[in-house]
Amino acid sequence: MKPLEVFCRNRVMYVQMTVHDKSMGKKDYHLYNKNGLAFYVFRKSQGVWELAFGELADDIKEACIDALILRFDSDVPELFYHHGVRQVVEVRARKYSLWHIYLNNAYVGSIQHDKYTKNFDYHIEDNSLLTDDQVQKYIGMIQHGELKWRKDDNNNIHHFFGRNHSYFLPNVDANNFNFLFLLKQLIQTPFQIESVVLQGIGCDDCSYDQCFSMTNALSSAIFPSSNRQMSQ
């Protein structure tokens, strides 16, 4: 296993470690000293990291916990200290391209992505310890895939595009084409379709073949006389 990078006493220590599965999904994290013989057991209990076995100087122990949090706790882009108290930042992905920001498990703000403008916006609670620069850093991490992004909840949502037209069909059942009749009623003015585009990112309820067949059926039902091109 890759060594744990521990920053302590103005230098980086590369500590050999192993992870051991315990009952009820818990894990023990064994950190070894230089000779590889003595080890120290760290454990996360009720959301709190602790040294469960062995003795270490307080500053080394806390530095090891910092390193374990940054490596193994999900959704944690950084931690910092304020008046000697560790502040752990979590950016938790929610549905519809929304993220909630927590500081030591207390809600302090949110980030939102607009799928139409492609812009990010954010809000920070008054008196929060977080700065605008920090939140901008988290947005950059989201964009680079370093933090989770639950793309707009596209389960059962399919977008079909024609020339100068967009149709958004929520709650579409890939195995039921009755929605075609409803959609046909919504279209009053016939137009030449250039393409039908299916966006199925994150679609868990139907396979690509099902989506492809559904899109083709939609195109045929609404635009029977047009020349169609399908793309994904």
Structural summary, described in words:
It is built from four helices and 15 strands. The chain has helices at 58-72, 132-143, 179-186, 208-222; strands spanning 4-8, 11-15, 17-21, 27-32, 39-45, 48-53, 78-82, 85-94, 98-103, 106-113, 120-124, 157-162, 165-170, 196-197, 230-231. The strands form five sheets. It has a five-stranded antiparallel β-sheet with strand order 7-8-9-10-11, with helices on both faces. A four-stranded antiparallel β-sheet has the order 3-4-5-6, covered by helices on one side. Strands 1-2 form a two-stranded antiparallel sheet. The chain is elongated and about 55 Å long. The relative contact order is 0.08.
Helices, strands, pairings?
Layout: E1 4-8, E2 11-15, E3 17-21, E4 27-32, E5 39-45, E6 48-53, H1 58-72, E7 78-82, E8 85-94, E9 98-103, E10 106-113, E11 120-124, H2 132-143, E12 157-162, E13 165-170, H3 179-186, E14 196-197, H4 208-222, E15 230-231
Parallel strand pairs: 14-15
Antiparallel strand pairs: 1-2, 3-4, 4-5, 5-6, 7-8, 8-9, 9-10, 10-11, 12-13
